[in-house]
Amino acid sequence: MIFKDKVAIVTGGTRGIGKAIVLMLVREGAKVVFTYSKSAQEAEKLIEETGKLGAQTIGLQIDVRDFDKAKELIERAKTAFGGLDILVNNAGITRDKALMMMTREEWLEVIDTNLNGLFNVTRNAIVTFLKQKSGNIVNITSVSGIIGLARQTNYAASKAGIIGFTRSLAREVAAYGIRVNAVAPGFIETDMLAGLKNEFKAKMIEHIPLSRLGEVWDVSRAVKFLLSDAAGYITGQVLVVDGGLAIK
Ligand code: NDP
């Protein structure tokens, strides 16, 4: 158990990649607080599932877009479990549309959730990490933020922003024993891809050298590595988990 008794926060933990990260952390002995925005039923089920693994897990309905709620999230984790060691910024949304059709609301909603939300949670957590001179952050970005994808100007901008944020913060806090890295998934089978037609998915697979969509576990394993001592000399990096899609 490589994260035994570590306290972790995972934003957007109820579904998809976030859920896989919560389960990975719990299996490795961590005490986890996860957030969600709407999916209370999924949260209940996940708490039950982790309970069966013998873990205490807390699920909080906290919208990452709310700065004060993000502050409350950090305090709740520290009060419940006595500290904070790990932060995984995973919560994210898409509102894909060609730019000429995109509304200002669709632009702002994505930036506010994916980028401002990550600021809100990290800004509040970093105070604790700086004081204790330790901490480990993994941000979930996307290949979209690296290579760009049509109909995702809002999403790609938010995800490219996360990469700049990750590299800057890594430099800023390295002297305090805090590592900050990012994972950039390619196409992973989650609810986020549920709206896509099968023909479109088949077309996407043609562009993936490893000839398959990713699974949530492909991503949680990469997160596990970056959070582990095996990655103790790695900070400010973006680990791409995309079956080769974005090979340059
Ligand atoms: P899902 O849509 O399956 O899950 C998203 C999670 O984020 C849910 O738990 C959701 O909660 C939560 N969430 C959404 N908005 C908020 C908010 N405002 N406040 C708090 N929680 C929120 O997404 P994925 O698992 O597919 O994606 C997870 C991350 O991985 C995202 O950052 C995404 O951009 C990134 N990613 C995904 C890829 C993919 O192919 N799936 C590819 C590349 C990156 P609720 O259920 O309550 O809405």
Count up the domains: 1
- How helix-rich are the residues, as a percent range? 40-55%
Fourth-tier CATH superfamily name: NAD(P)-binding Rossmann-like Domain
Structural class: alpha/beta
- Report the sheet with the most strands, covering strand number, pairing sense and barrel closure: 7 strands, parallel
Query: CATH fold name, please?
Result: Rossmann fold
Shape: globular
Straight-line N-to-C gap: 36 Å
Total helical segments: 8
Number of strands: 7
Q: What average pLDDT do the residues reach?
A: 97
How would you characterize this protein structure?
It contains eight helices and seven strands, in the order E-H-E-H-E-H-E-H-E-H-H-E-H-H-E. By secondary structure, it is α/β, with parallel strands linked by helices. The radius of gyration is 17 Å and the shape is globular. Helix 1 crosses helix 8, helix 3 runs parallel beside helix 4 and helix 4 runs parallel beside helix 6. The protein has a single domain, classed as NAD(P)-binding Rossmann-like Domain (Rossmann fold, 3-Layer(aba) Sandwich). The mean pLDDT is 97. A seven-stranded parallel beta sheet has the order 3-2-1-4-5-6-7, sandwiched between helices. The longest helix has 29 residues. Bound molecules: NADPH dihydro-nicotinamide-adenine-dinucleotide phosphate. NADPH dihydro-nicotinamide-adenine-dinucleotide phosphate binds next to helix 1, strand 2 and helix 4.
